[in-house]
Every structure is written in structure tokens, then in C-alpha cells.
Amino acid sequence: MSIEAREARQPWILLSPALSAVTMLLFVPLMFIVVYSFWLRSAVGPDTVGFYLDNWQRVLTDDFYRYILLNTLKIAAITTILCAVLGYPAAYFIARARGNKVLMLVLLMLPFWISYIIRTMSWINILGSSGALNSLLMTMGVISEPIRMLYNEGTVILGLVHFLLPFMILNIYVSVDGIDTSLEDAANSLGATRWQAFLQVTLPLSLPGLAAGGLLVFVLGASSYITPLILGGPRDAMFANLVFEAIITQLNWPLGSALSLLLLIVLGSLVLVYNRFLGMSQLTRGLG
């Protein structure tokens, strides 16, 4: 074998363990889900094996599933916008801080050391009828009886922002921290105010990190299951909850497979649109 052939094969040999793991743990299970989506659930006995479009017809034509999907995308979009508005100032402050950035980053990542479920359930102790907020308001005489704050769409969005905000801040921080501060100084020396320098220099250069954080937050928010289950009401279910209901409660694996693939297709299409207009290179830049 020639030297050129060995050099051409070497990257694939080095990547073979990772490619094997991705194939066995991602693509093979995905193929099973694709096959299951065309089966039919039987009232008694095993599922009916074959190629049937009943599940897909039900998923694509039922107004109920369409409403839940659109509502899921709406909640994910609102969560992304709020995370961007709240996360950018925090990321900018950390990136431009003259103190110990490592300590601030450690404090930012502290929530990751606590279970996501525990963090989500903590809002029940804060916003519940006998929670800290209602107790404080009643003690101060602001209200005479507890206010219903839980189990609505607003609480679901609050829980998602609480969960996903660190992801947004970290992505924006990496992008802002990589911008040379001398560019802002040059803009100021040419007569621009600090605000103008930020809008015309820092913000455009940090858009890759903002875009990467936005894509990550949107995808994680749209596929969230725990937050709407704990903090949402019956009318606040998201699409992932329908997948759980179909597979675990109804034991309807074919329908659950079709639902999960529909969500995967929708989110994958959004990633393709992102790649078409911004490019995945922007995403890798934002991720550092």
C-alpha cells in the first residue's frame, strides 16, 4: 500500500471508534423508529407488521397534533427570545469583566451540578399556593389569599428560561470574549460613542455566538418534556409529552414513533434553514 493511501485512510481509522458509536447508538435506533412508524398497533397481541400509512395520516391531518406542534414552536421561540435578551448582558459583563472570569463562569455553571428535575420542581416551592412568593405577599399584606401562579404557559416558559439561559450565556460569552477590545477603542477614537461602538462593532461580531445559542436553546426548548410535565397544566403539553403519552401510557409504539419522527423532521428542517442562511461555520464559531 502506498504512503498516500495510508495517509488517506488514517483519518478514518482514527474516527472509526466515534463513527461506530454514533452508528450503533443513534442511526440504528433511528432506523428502528422509522420502521415502527409504519406498523399498526393491535388491540390484542403484538403490533401488526407491515407498511401502513395510518399513523402518518393521523399525525399529519389531525388538528390536535398540529395545534400542539405550533404551540410547542411558539413556546420555544418565546423562550429563545427571552434567553437572548437576558443572556446577552450577562455574557457581555463576564467577557469584559476585569475580575476573576473563572469564578463567574463557575458560578454560571453551578446549576448544571444540580439535577434538572430538582431545579424544575423548585419552582413549585416558589410559586405554589403555599410557596415562598405567595407567603411573602400575604405577610406583607399585598394579597389576602394565594394567587394561582403555577400550571400555565407562562410558568412553562419561566422554567425553560431557567433551564436554558446558561446555554445561551456560554455561547455568547465565547463569541464576545474573542472580540479584540481594541476594535471598540478604535471606534471610540473615530468619534463613536460607547453605545454606537457596541451596536456597530461588538454586536455584529458576536452574532455567531448569539445565533449558536439561539439554535441550541430553540431545539432544546422545543424537545423539552420535563418542564411542561411538572410546571404546565393539561392544556400546556408540548409535543414531546405526546410522544411519552403514546409510547408509555397508551403503549402505542407505532404512533409514538411517527410523532417523534415528525418533531425530528421539523427541528431538522429549521437547522437546514439556519445552515442555508447563516451556515454551520457560524455555529462552530459561536461554540468556540
Please characterize this protein's 3D structure.
This protein is an all-alpha fold. It has a single domain (54-286), classed as MetI-like (MetI-like fold, Orthogonal Bundle), CATH 1.10.3720.10. 75% of the residues lie in helices and 0% in strands. It has 13 helices and no strands. The longest helix has 34 residues, at 3-36. The mean pLDDT is 88.
Q: Count every helix, treating DSSP H or I runs of 4 or more residues as helices.
A: 13
- Main sheet makeup: none
Rg estimate, integer Å: 24 Å
Uncertain regions spanning at least 5 consecutive residues: none
CATH topology: MetI-like fold
The CATH homologous superfamily is called MetI-like
The top level CATH class name: Mainly Alpha
How does the overall form come out from the CA principal axes?
A: globular
Structural class: mainly alpha
The residue-averaged pLDDT reads 88
Beta-strand content: under 5%
Report helical residue fraction.
Answer: over 70%
Features of the shown structure:
288 residues; mainly alpha; MetI-like fold; 75% helix; globular
Task: Please provide a brief summary of the model.
The chain is an all-alpha fold. It is 75% helix and 0% strand.
